[in-house]
Amino acid sequence: MKKLMAMELALLFLLLPRAQAALPATDNFNRATVGTTWTKTGGATLDWQIYGSAAAYHYAGTYGAMYWNADVFSGDHYSQMTVVMNTGCLFGPSVRNQAGGDSYYLLEANGSYYYLIKTTAGSPVIMTSGPVAIVTGDTITLTASGTSTVTLTGYKNGVQFVSTTDSSSPLTGGAPGLGAPGYCNNGDAWEGGNVGGASPVVARKRKVLL
Q1: Domains of the chain
Q2: In Å, how far from its chain's centre is CA 137?
Q3: What is the pLDDT of residues 56-81, one digit of tens each?
């Protein structure tokens, strides 16, 4: 009887959905290189680096992004990161990063301003922008939900500060990641998961060890 029960439990485990079990995905970047769990996009794919135990993009004048490839996400997902400030430069979480193409939504911010960007085949367009105070240790989150009309919402330390929609050839599916326009702030304590999943999609301010 015990052997039969063990076999039944093993079978049940094999039949359970496993793609979502690892979510939310996380990365603290405490290593020397970005590694194979990230896919780099853009015209300067070799310029994503680890600097001071945080992700950094070092290529002037060209937008770049990278997305998490080690898990499967629903189309409604989020990306969040903790800011390690390099004064005046832009950096942030990205969502709906398309496999095999340089297309994504990006919420980039510096110490005083944000831009919500839609990049399609490498061409960035500002969807909306405005003032926001950001300091080292703040957690920035971007969520995406919907298909024919995509709703994009940005949070700082769990408090919403921007929301907009895209119904003009919106990006669907994809994966969460990070993005920047070049020579930018560093991002640490990254997390990506499904909206409405087991992990909260917004976080309070985190302590960053510099």
Answers
A1: 22-194 (2.60.120.560)
A2: 17
A3: 887 767 888 999 999 999 999 999 99
